[in-house]
Amino acid sequence: MSPDATDGDPQEPYESDSDPTTPIPDGSTGDPMQNTMDEDSRRSIPTSESVPAGLGWPASPSESNPAPTSAVGPTNGSAVAALVCGILGVTACPLVLSIAALILGYNARSSIRQPGSREQGDGLASAGIVMGWIGVGIAVAVVLVWVAMLFVFGIASTAFGS
């Protein structure tokens, strides 16, 4: 028999006999959802009207003070294309798409880095360039392995007279 069980009458183990709204000696009701701040404490909380402009809250947008606009420019499309071609160059078609990633990436990076350009995407272009070089490296390694296998099996077939 468990220590909580009493003659078939289940009792909640955390049930309390006290009412949550019964006053506690410190003056609050004990209800955590109730705001227990007194009137003096409420007056000491700064509001947007009591704080001078520029020191606390920003002024609300109005005709004389418009809301700030984003200073971020558009993302360069060639940078995105370079990254996509770089990823596909490593996974699907190493030589062709990797070379395309290199061309697109270098062109995008040069246009992004021009003075006065607001375009974003330098990191995308750089990632496309890195992926492009990785894809070229994979393509070169595959061609070298293929040539080596052709050379080894070509010599082996002539030596054994197939």
Distance between the termini: 87 Å
Name the structural class.
Answer: mainly alpha
* Largest sheet composition: none
Rg result:
36 Å
Proportion of residues in extended strands? under 5%
- H and E order: HHHH
Shape: rod-shaped
Unreliable residue runs: none
**Percentage of residues assigned to helices:** 40-55%
Mean pLDDT across the residues is 76
Per DSSP E runs of 2 or more residues, the count of β-strands stands at 0
Number of helices: 4
Description:
- The protein is mostly helical and 162 residues long.
- The protein has a domain at 77-137.
- Helices cover 48% and strands 0% of the residues.
- The chain contains four helices and no strands.
- Helix 2 runs antiparallel to helix 3 and helix 3 packs antiparallel against helix 4 (122-159).
- The longest helix is centred in the last third of the chain and has 38 residues, at 122-159.
- It is rod-shaped, with a radius of gyration of 36 Å.
- The termini are far apart.
